[in-house]
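Researcher: Final request for today, and then I'll write up notes for the group meeting. The sequence and the SMILES for fe (ii) ion follow.
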Amino acid sequence: MEGPIVNTKLAALPIISVEPFLQPGHHGRLSAAAALHAACTEYGFFYLDISSHIDPSEPEELTRLAREFFALPEEEKDKISIANEDGVRGYQRLKENVTNGKADNHEAIDFFKPVEKPDKTKTLWGENQWPSIPGFREKYEVWIEKMKNLGMVVMEAMATGLGVTPEEWAELQSKVDDSFWVMRIIGYPPLPNDHDGFSCGAHKDYGCLTFLYADPTPGALQVYLNDPGLVVKEDGRTPVQRVEDGGRWINADPIPGCVVCNIGEMWEVWTNGLYKSTLHRVVHRGSNYRVSIPFFFEANFDALVEPLPAARRIQDDDRAVGKATEPIKVYEPVVYGDFLLKKLSGNYATSPGKGRYDTN
Ligand SMILES: O=C(O)CCC(=O)C(=O)O
Ligand SMILES: [Fe+2]
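Model: Predicted protein-fe (ii) ion complex:
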């Protein structure tokens, strides 16, 4: 009997350990940086093994606190509604978030880097709103610090993988050293069978690097792997979910000790398209209430993001040896804060725009 045609190369995302980047002079640093470069060009997604760095009980406690909050009556949760603040910092009810014009089947609390001189009449310029659950804020603030540090470590590792010079790294570092980070705490009830949308619709992350900690629920986060030359048959097996345009959705199930890491559109600009920001979505049809905590390590608010010389060198070399024949399109520079504000202007069901992750 003819078996399913599945490209095993694309069956699972790579796992990269952060350890070589935490220890100065670690012998595995260059090979890990090369693996990171390959993961970013081929997938835009990978698992980052942080088990040598972070005790697993820590994020588990964060999901416990999140569950405690989401289990509160709606009027309690609404006390920290985004409507009380700057329209983006705070709690959003189920279906208040919109992606690709459809309401997402999740509720969430969003936090952004605090700003000087807050003014809640200006989108994004208000203050974060914390649940009054004892220990909540303190524990999440410790996590934020850890994720900010991790962001800087991974940025430097990626710069090494890309072949930047020390001067170029100093320049790139100055674009992210005051990261305008974002953290979401997301609660996903199971998707009703008659729901015509998603738990979170297909989107690309718009910033720099995402570190996703999720509870152990399998089969929820899906990543779109595009391989135009690939012929895949729907075979009913995990991880193949669906076939579209020669690509397919695979599950990115949680792996103990790892966060799922993916690159956002700013890295696509920095690398002039060498690293792709990959589509992903959440389809949670299980019976449990799923919790995930994505941390978005972003560029500085006023950072001008433009293609890096190191990426252009790789592209020029590829052309010189005939590996690339198409003319290379040069990405337009963007100021991260402007880009972010544009994205946020259409995020929510109550706002007149489209959705959080819509691309234009
Ligand atoms: O909950 C997840 O697994 C992913 C959420 C996500 O992609 C996002 O918030 O950007
Ligand atoms: Fe995302």
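Model: DSSP finds nine helices and 17 strands in the chain. Residues 1-10, 229-243, 350-355 have pLDDT under 50 and may be disordered.
Researcher: Thanks, that's everything.
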